[in-house]
Amino acid sequence: MIDNMKTVFDSGRTRDLAWRRAQLEAVERLMAECEGEFMAALAADLGKPPMESYTTEISYVSGEAAYCRKKLSRWTKSKRVSTPLVGQPGTSWIQPEPLGVVLVIGAWNYPVQLTLAGMVAAITAGNCVVIKPSELAPATSALLARRVPKYLDPECINIVTGGVAETSALLELPFDHILYTGGGNVGRIVMAAAAKNLTPVTLELGGKSPCVVLPDANLEATARRIVWGKFTNAGQTCTAPDYILTDADTEAKLVPLIKKSIDDMFGSDPQQSDSYGRIINSRHFDRVSQLIGSGTVVAGGQTDAGDKYIAPTVLTGVSPESPVMQEEIFGPILPIVRADDLDEAIAAIRKRDKPLSAYLFTRDKQAETRFLNDVSCGSACINDVMMFAAVHELPFGGVGPSGMGAYSGKRGFDTFSHMKAVMKRGWWPDLDIRFAPYTEKKFKLLRKIR
Ligand code: NAD
């Protein structure tokens, strides 16, 4: 498969801007014409409500494709840079070129977005792409396998379905770049396999994204926004606020507002709500359910294994050493951990791995500046959560254990391009100064013009 794709790539087909535009338009058509099928598959895999499927998957992908299509001719242009005196007469420029045949490995929690948004970036940069959706979202994976070859050029864009065996086989191949989204343990496997072929990698991983609430925040808006971010997709979002850090007084005011927001959004029995999703499988259901015992349940706490349902749950009295604070929760449990002030909150965050995202709710500009300077994370949001994903011009990616490299918008184009450095010399004058024999006179002159 990869050999055939390399042959097509070498033919120059994917470099052609008209081909790239046509493929991006095809992605937009795929999302529009198969919207109902995608919603049904996402409902089968994750109980995803149609509006969530639309905003976080379908319209996200088509929006990204439309944005990249519009920016294509600007991004692909060479960029002139200045040439110093020693290079005169001459001109220099940076010329983006596609990498070749690239691999995009997606995760199950946003199985459309995490597979196709990477593909969109790779196409925009002019590559052939193999996409590998997650086997843990089987309905979506099967739908992608049926629909992608019908809409996109099957000689340049291939889809491989399957699990560990199929992904491991793909990882043996000499791709020109790999974009992997998922947990850090498999990220290490991907990077080790890629090293054998010297294939560069972009790793989109996870982590515990903290959410600091200071007393001066608008607590009603804070509660609503945190509840939305935490319980979208039943908490199975890499950038979801993992836990809250706040002081005792603010916690006492915030908890009733969080409970009210949960009630407003999902009703008194969220299991009956059309707006609330399910846990992906029994293994994750068991893992997340066990974390409920890590604190005092002040909201939710109900589970139903047969329905893979875990209620939107809020825990107080949570110690930083408790099980729920050891790993990314990736489920609908919101622990509140005490931090008396911003200093304590920042110190608590910095004791842990650098997170994928970090959130601060405050009206205090100085607190905001300190937080942004002192907390290293992939993306940050002040007074909201996760909304940076709606900004095409912001790169998306982690730092340290939460990932390496980034994509989305222009950064996705850059990730899948090589920025070739080019210099072109004029013929005349062909100054003698750099050529041997080296003389004292040449050396003196050289020192002056450097
Ligand atoms: P997953 O189980 O779907 O795995 C991801 C991919 O890796 C799949 O395509 C799977 O086939 C492949 N895979 C699994 N085991 C493998 C192995 N042993 N060898 C080779 N390939 C293998 O997803 P997951 O790991 O459960 O994902 C959840 C994690 O992903 C969370 O930590 C979450 O925060 C993170 N995540 C990050 C982002 C991001 O954009 N940064 C987005 C979503 C999820």
Secondary structure: elements and pairs:
Blueprint: H1 2-10, H2 17-33, H3 35-46, H4 50-76, E1 79-81, E2 90-98, E3 101-105, H5 113-124, E4 128-132, H6 138-151, E5 157-159, H7 164-171, E6 177-181, H8 184-196, E7 201-204, E8 210-213, H9 219-231, E9 243-246, H10 248-266, H11 282-289, E10 296-299, E11 303-304, E12 309-310, E13 313-316, E14 333-338, H12 342-350, E15 357-361, H13 365-374, E16 379-382, E17 403-404, H14 409-415, E18 417-425, H15 440-449
Parallel strand pairs: 3-4, 3-6, 4-5, 6-7, 8-9, 8-15, 9-14, 13-14, 15-16
Antiparallel strand pairs: 1-2, 2-18, 7-17, 10-13, 11-12
Give an account of the 3D structure:
The protein is globular. It folds into two domains: 2-205 and 398-422, 3-Layer(aba) Sandwich (Aldehyde Dehydrogenase, Chain A, domain 1); 210-392, Aldehyde Dehydrogenase, Chain A, domain 2 (3-Layer(aba) Sandwich). The chain starts with a helix and ends with a helix. It has helices spanning 2-10, 17-33, 35-46, 50-76, 113-124, 138-151, 164-171, 184-196, 219-231, 248-266, 282-289, 342-350, 365-374, 409-415, 440-449, and strands at 79-81, 90-98, 101-105, 128-132, 157-159, 177-181, 201-204, 210-213, 243-246, 296-299, 303-304, 309-310, 313-316, 333-338, 357-361, 379-382, 403-404, 417-425. Strand 15, helix 13 (365-374) and strand 16 form a beta-alpha-beta unit. Helix 2 (17-33) packs antiparallel against helix 4, helix 2 (17-33) packs antiparallel against helix 5 and helix 4 runs parallel beside helix 5 (113-124). With 450 residues, the protein is of the alpha/beta class. The strands form four sheets. It has a seven-stranded mixed beta sheet, sandwiched between helices. Strands 5-4-3-6-7-17 form a six-stranded mixed beta sheet, sandwiched between helices. It has a three-stranded antiparallel beta sheet with strand order 1-2-18. It contains 15 helices and 18 strands. Bound molecules: nicotinamide-adenine-dinucleotide. Residues 105-109, 114, 132, 134-136, 163-164, 167-168, 181-183, 186, 189, 204-206, 238, 328, 330, 356, 398, 403 line the site of nicotinamide-adenine-dinucleotide.
